[in-house]
Amino acid sequence: MQLRIPGPTPCPEEVLSSLSRQMINHRGEEFAELIWNLTERLKNIFMTKGDVFILTSSGTGAMEASIVNTLSPGDRVLALSNGFFGERFSGVASAFGAEVLKLDFEWGKAIEPEKVRDVLKKERDVKAVLVVHNETSTGLTNPLKEIARVVREYDRLLLVDAISSLSCIELPMDEWGCDVVFTGSQKGFMVPPGLSFIAINERGWEAYKKAKMPKFYWDLGKAKSFLEKGQTPWTPSIPIFFALDVALRLIEKEGLRNIFERHKRVADKVREGIKELGLSLFPDERYASNTITAVRSPDGLDTRELLKILREEYDVVLAGGQDRLSGKIFRIGHLGKVSEADMDEVLRAIGSALSKMRR
Amino acid sequence: MQLRIPGPTPCPEEVLSSLSRQMINHRGEEFAELIWNLTERLKNIFMTKGDVFILTSSGTGAMEASIVNTLSPGDRVLALSNGFFGERFSGVASAFGAEVLKLDFEWGKAIEPEKVRDVLKKERDVKAVLVVHNETSTGLTNPLKEIARVVREYDRLLLVDAISSLSCIELPMDEWGCDVVFTGSQKGFMVPPGLSFIAINERGWEAYKKAKMPKFYWDLGKAKSFLEKGQTPWTPSIPIFFALDVALRLIEKEGLRNIFERHKRVADKVREGIKELGLSLFPDERYASNTITAVRSPDGLDTRELLKILREEYDVVLAGGQDRLSGKIFRIGHLGKVSEADMDEVLRAIGSALSKMRR
Asked: Which of A117, A166, A278, B110 is most buried when burial is the number of CB atoms within 10 A of its CB?
């Protein structure tokens, strides 16, 4: 099967088999060695000298953690949004009582750093900026480096959703000046869902000290004090820790730089292949993502039917559009364990399914 | 190895091997069938006709969910506490702005329903009562049936931490009148950590409608609307779902009634064996738990050293005491996959390690 949704992504055999180990004591020495080791290696992927924590949750849990650990009810935040996950990030901040200033861009268009600057120049009391690095819903990578530069100019806190980018698309957190960055285990990491990873720097900790949003499960201060003992505050999902260990070994062996290039090569192939099939990309191509390709459904095509045929007749599982894009696009995930050959197979299946539908 | 901490508990071979399946689409038909099926079978374990949800988190996540889905900041709650987890439950409620009225009992003594009645009689504006069914920290099972009867008399909401009891010790939620009950995957269920289960009845949903505590990840209303589609709002930890399927089959085959009896038999054996070794139980024996035995450390015994010898020389992993009980007790977990033969081995190891230490 080609499971090519934007996550969970297929896991390598050695990752899957590592899941079957018997449980160990999460308050014992072996686990302590494991979590210290994994945490240090994750710092290399976040490219940070800050702190990294492993939470037992999906990526949205880490999104909530990024908000409640740095903000207080009533704090003004600038939420940049050009897709479903930008909306979600903004929604979490609102749910916890932040006063959210939304800066919306058309879905499929990139966030414009200049417009972010205009707002920050005017709105002096904005405490934090929320941004999604790679908008999974539209297959678009926002120009995070440039956005971060603007946020640093105005010295605001920058919280970054890197759920579908980290480990696949360059994101040197410290160099670019991002303060809190989070991701999930089931995307680029080639690990099953069940864990999320969140990195926080000194500015993030300064914000933590003043943050009054209620928190318990997501409290990074607790996570930090337990990590010193080689533990998590709450029982961690041990099998996914085992899997992460193996997956990081694969990532380290290939090398981050090579992984970024592979994702670019694979994405280029997908984009070309899609055009050769007479289809077009949904997002502004200059910002098309190297991990997810969103394809505009041709007029009159029943996208749901296309996905069903692909699934049932070709064993290729792709994703539809979310929310306002439902029925208007379909999405190909090409992140984590993915090769050009995988995408050849997917493209052939799409081509063949389309001609079948048009017959 | 005998991993006999109060959780994670050892997983059966067939549960472990089920973890290694390749990922599937969490928004696809196969997952929908799986989650609907698992949810119905979990209802049998909670003995409820209410709703049950599977969250990707540890048990403490479900504890937070029980609070934020039913309460508003400023609500008065009565937190019953006779151990570390009673304190935690109370702490979560405080963290989210509830006005917590604590009713404390000595650690190792049971909660007294009459004293709960005295408080509820006097304090007319208490909205909810928080109680831990099985206090993992002291090896004690609170008389939940009687406590629930009092709470029903006064028609308050009853939130129950059943993390180390559900599926091992009787807890017919509907019959006893509990409103929200939650547990974790890594205890009696013989499943690795990574999921929690939470059940909520009609009264719980009534409270939900008025509950103003901030929530996003834990929002059970969202969980309900996604479950109708056979989904979870956020990406679920798929391998642990596979494991739960297999573990529930084992539980159903043995039968809940037989499982309760096995836990009682095993616990009786442990308690007798401990006394035969000249040791004594920490909690009031009339309320000693069938899933965890807390043993008082004899005067002058270095508990840490005992646990180290057991671990290194006998391959038996037990737990120490938490918080104020650190160094004063040690704890044997006997829940989930456990037999009398397992406990024979553990008791022999304890006896042998003790004579070695006394030599």
From this structure: A166
Query: Is the separation of the CB atoms in A104 and A97 below 8 Å?
Result: no
> Across chain B, which distance is largest between two alpha carbons, in Å?
64
pLDDT given at position B348: 98
Q: Which residues pair with A331 in a beta bridge?
A: A294, A319
Sign of the CA dihedral running A345, A346, A351, A352: positive
- Residue with tokens 């009845």, as numbered in its chain: B201
Contacts with A5 from chain B: Cβ below 8 Å: 25, 27
Between CA B186 and CA B193, with CA B190 as vertex, the angle to 5 degrees is 25
Count CA within 13 A, CB hemisphere, residue B223. 25
Residues of B within 8 A of A27 (CB-CB) are 5, 319
* % of chain A at pLDDT higher than 90: 99
Contacts B194 to A, Cβ<8 Å: 56, 194, 237-240
> Any chain A CB within 8 A of the CB of B58?
yes
Sheet holding A157-161, edge to edge: A51-55, A196-200, A180-184, A157-161, A126-132, A76-81, A99-104
CA–CA separation, A157 vs A77, rounded Å? 9
Q: If contacts are CB pairs under 8 Å, which of residues 158-187 in chain B contact chain A?
A: 184, 186
DSSP A115: H
Mean residue pLDDT across chain B: 98
pLDDT at A299: 87
Asked whether the predicted pLDDT for residue A89 surpasses 90, the reply is yes
Alpha helices for A165-255 (secondary structure H):
173-176, 202-210, 220-228, 238-254
Task: Output DSSP code: residue B179.
Answer: S
* B156-196 pLDDT per residue, tens: 999 999 999 999 999 999 999 999 999 999 999 999 999 99
Q: Which two tokens stand for residue B92?
A: 């979560």
Quote the pLDDT of residue A41.
98
Q: Does B216 touch chain A (CB under 8 A)?
A: yes
Helix locations, chain B, DSSP H: 13-18, 29-46, 59-68, 84-95, 113-122, 144-153, 173-176, 202-210, 220-228, 238-254, 256-276, 303-314, 340-358
**Tokens linked to B177:** 């009148």
Counting every residue written for chain B, the total comes to 359
One-character DSSP codes across B238-304 = HHHHHHHHHHHHHHHHH-HHHHHHHHHHHHHHHHHHHHHTT-EESS-GGGB-SSEEEEEPPTT--HH
Ramachandran region, residue B177 (left: φ > 0; alpha: ψ -120 to 50; beta: rest): left
Does the global pTM surpass 0.90? yes
Region class of B147: left (phi > 0), else alpha (psi between -120 and 50), else beta: alpha
Q: Is the ipTM of this complex over 0.85?
A: yes
CA dist B216 and A64 (Å) reads: 7
Mark which residues 90-129 of B lie under 8 Å from A by CB: 91-92, 95-97
Which whole number is the average pLDDT over B241-246? 98
CB pair distance less than 8 Å for A25 and B10: no
Residue pair A282/A296 in contact by the 8 Å Cβ criterion? yes
Per-residue pLDDT at B343 = 98
**Domains of chain A with CATH codes:** 13-252 (3.40.640.10), 255-358 (3.90.1150.10)
Distance CA A294, CA A271 (A): 9
